[in-house]
Amino acid sequence: MKNFITLCTLCTALCVNAQSIFKGTVTNQNNKPILATVYLPQLQIGTATDLDGNFQISNLPSGTFKIVYSSLGYATLSTKISFQEGNTISENTTLQESAVEMEEIVISTPFHKLQSDNVMRVERVTASEIKKQGALTLSQGITNIPGVSSITTGVGIGKPVIRGLSANRVATFAQGVRLENQQFGDEHGLGLSANGIESIEVIKGPASLLYGSDALGGVLYINPENFAERNSVRGDASIGYATNTEGKTGDFGVKQSGERFKFLVRGGYATHADYKTGDTLRVTNTRFNETDLKTGLRYQGDQLQTTLRYNFNQSNIGIPEELGVQNTERNLLAPFQQIDNHILSLENNLLFNNSSLNIKAGYLFNNRREFEEVDELAIGIHLNTFNYNLQYHLPDFGNFETIVGVQGMYQQNENYGEEILIPDATTTDYGLFATTHYHLENIDLQGGLRIDTRSIESLAARNEGDDDFITPIDVDFSSITAALGAKFDISEQWLARVNVAKGYRAPNLAELTSNGVHEGTNRYEVGNAGLTEEQNLQADISIAFRNEHFEFFGNGFYNMISDYIFINPTTDFIDNNQVFNYFQTDANLYGGEVGLHIHPHPLDWLHIESTFETVTGDLKDGGSLPLIPANTLKNTLRVEFKDGKLMKGSQLFATYQNTFAQNNVSTFETTTKGYNLLSLGASTSFNLNKIALDLGVNVTNLTDEVYINHLSRLKVDGISNIGRNVNMNLRASF
Q: Looking at residue 269, which CATH number applies to its domain?
């Protein structure tokens, strides 16, 4: 660490020079000033225009940076400007009117572009939008993104599914570092709170090129909340209540920024009783509570930006087994989990004249405890993970933008409970990659190459000679991955994307070494030390149309996976638990998403949105893949009201979701029937002196439909999902 600090100091000293000033005016096509935001994503610096449309940003380093202009009711504009030592640059910018919402910066892709400029289509949703839609948890909220589902155990446990792939095939990033929390287990959730999160981005398809092994199926990239603007202090607090679970939530945050230093802190708590199904029965032991703390510190230097963030999340979650006692108590019943997640991340961004170096390092500690009786610890696991990511943005060469990098991870798994599902082990990852973006007037090309290695070394567990003995392993995996994509601006309204990517995933520790009962699944799992890497090749085609009052998109994909690892039941039983073994075979997944958004002129206040998503998963030897989500059609009618003297940003919405029957199931799955869910919501904002208040009320499953989602782990017991729920939220900002 001492050598690292010395390196950063030297780099800073070499790069210090006089700072530049960027100023100008933002107007519309009628040359009238507008209120807009001017933002430099690479520097994470921005400002807002005044009533005359003027803006000024000082203390900018030398170099070439993207500038993003955005304003509600206008098309977002992105451009590049080069700054020299001590220069003042003036730019007058005109934005075109548009009824489409503002485009946001996509953070998860390497070149930080607007969605319309990106070679890969990235789905993005803000945390505030998730809450407006009535989601009780973050994992529930991301299911509103087309192509994204969740494997659930009640409402307290949710695992993301992207186009039919989940667990270690989906890489989750928080605070810019890969989240590691024993995500191989069906009942192991995200371990993240929606509090203190700015937005969630989803890359669908193999992203191993950028994010390494475990990104075979896609990436869930969770962006933390932004710091306050320069020389300002901000604070907010919120409370919420959910009628179905009698859930109570609250959080409080404060952030302060000076010219150089920025600081924020946020704490939150949520508690829920057992949820109630549409037939008024409560599902015993689906109660849970969550405590969350997030804090961050940033130094904004002339050429060096350093950001330190920390997140502590403690989740206490019941594991339901039956429809038993009917009450609204909150004390956990056995079996239950107690999970502590610690995420410490450090990011350094060093800016040179025409290039930059980004260094991210993270330390994660996951403490998982599972209890079979209230005072009887069955499984106890400590997971320590250190990961790093160095990316060097080379100087632009003509129309080429290029990044080279190195990523790695060192992980130790240690048992301290009475029972052992997976043995003590050490995992080491190392990867090298390069990616480049080539920009022409109407065509953008992007490609890259990567090589990865993973080593897993485990210790023996239990007594040699016993049936449940776990043999030690020492295995290595490696692979080359690649990606190539293109975006075509067919016209001002039409664009098309074509992407082909090759990904890989090494078997995880559970798949290689399991030999015991997996708590919460009621099955005896036996690993296979002879498993090889999964390899896949996926093709994505996307087309989009957009004008002032109409949007359309269509995405199609075909994913061929060699040596797909899956678990399959046998005819054997051990201690009344059926034995499941891990196997490999080739598999194919295919499907896509279609969506449209209508906001007709002159009724710009009216929005009609529809999406349809489908995925099919087949095994080469016959049969279907397990845990493939059912086809879904969702229609939303949204009305936005003009701002009044008191209330602003007011809107109403109604969503009708049709989920079709899922009859294509694996050998150990049950089929599920189709169902329809109706949701309503309303939100508004108003000021009370210097305090801004945001109020939202929404109702999910208004008709109290009795249904079972195909990805619910409770479906084998015939237990329905959550019934009608009224969710109310109030946030005060000051």
A: 2.40.170.20
